[in-house]
Amino acid sequence: MVKDIGIDLGTANVLIYLRDRGVILNEPSLVAVNNKTGEVIAAGAKAYQMLGRTPKDISIIHPLKGGVIADISIAEQMLEHFIRRLNLHSYIRKPDILICTPTNITTVEQKAIIQAAVKCGGQSIYLEEEPKVAAVGVGLDIFSPFGNMVIDMGGGTSDIAVLSMGSCVTSRSIKLAGDDLDHEITNYIKEEYQLIIGERTAEDIKMNLGTAIELEKESDMIIKGRDMTTGLPKSITIYSNEIYHCMKEVLETICEEARLVLEETPPELAGDIIDRGISITGGGALIHGMDQLLAEKLQVPVFVVDNPLNSVAIGTGKLLDRIKHDENPWSFIKRLFSSNRVVLNPTINMIEEKGEENDRK
Question: What is the C-alpha to C-alpha distance for residues 308 and 177, in angstroms, rounded to an integer?
Fold first, then answer.
């Protein structure tokens, strides 16, 4: 019997959740493509191993950028590859799929995600906002009349939301996240040491030395790359506080966006957040001192949740269970059947009609 699946379609990683089995797939959002034939050679972990090591006739493609699909065709093939590996298809029916999205996703981006999921064999496709899914995944009761605040720091976007009674009361989604930290590290090493490093090295530096607060006792790391002056291989030693300074501007911008969300929050819900604190999820939650930086800037308790990398994927599974067992599915969830599109939220319907009208113009 086919089982419904939840997908955390992240810029950095794709996670797939299966009921009763938990997270059964966690692989990088990368695809290796033959430039001559257009054939997909590898996806996920195998493509990641090739990153920075391929000949000219093979490209490593990031089909998702900034939290949304940048290359629909490649994203479809990547999802198809992952779902086929899990062998979830059935002759009786196709699986229902719930996919999380950033809070400010456009109609065009929504349709791209839906199209990819349908072509991968999904029957009914549900889209839900990422911070809401993350909150459910960490066990917050977002359906009660109390305020909960979540900051989900992923690879392509940082989503910040205050939730109450099953909806986002105030929210922001900014395209500043883990990938931008990698770029800042790459640029710093290039300017300071005239050393060119690859994506994998930048990510390793972030994971091993990344810190949101200045440290009294620093850690160090030897990195290798290509010298810009001589063109020859070269290794250098870098330190934690160097990485702190090059990441500082991006992290403080995320803090400022969180402050603006709090400014727009109704007073009663703001009071709840003082009592309950702010939960941070995603890969960015693992940056050393991120909770301390946010607590200092926002003057509110901040907690790194258990298992922050899997929170969104776990939330997709919990939401699917709720949908399946609820006789009256929530109005804020959108459904797409293989033949008919059903939009339960009148506001969303109005937005889509307005978008189609603008397209006609």
Answer: 15
